[in-house]
Design brief:
The protein has 83 residues and is an all-alpha fold. It contains 3 helices and no strands. The protein is elongated.
């Protein structure tokens, strides 16, 4: 790590009097971080699936014939006027 710290000091123009960072022997927050990430991932997946399900339900509820039915009546009126 000493070589990495020296390179970092040179690149970031850190004075040589700055102490090198200490290596953490054990991180207590690691299990907490892992649990938090897995919880967030689960919530994001659930939100994604809910939105996709709601979108598909909205698509099934749409009446695709309604816009075309109105046009056919307009076309019938046009034919009547042309006669």
């Amino acid at each position: 790590m000493n070589l990495h710290w020296q390179r970092y000091q040179e690149l970031e123009l850190i004075p040589p009097s700055a102490p090198a960072p200490r290596k953490a022997k054990f991180q207590l927050s690691l299990p907490l971080t892992t649990a938090w990430r897995s919880l967030l991932n689960a919530l994001a997946r659930e939100q994604f699936y809910e939105q996709r399900t709601e979108y598909l339900e909205r698509c099934w509820q749409l009446d695709y014939e309604a816009p075309y039915a109105g046009e056919s009546k307009a076309l019938q009126k046009l034919w009547m006027l042309m006669d």
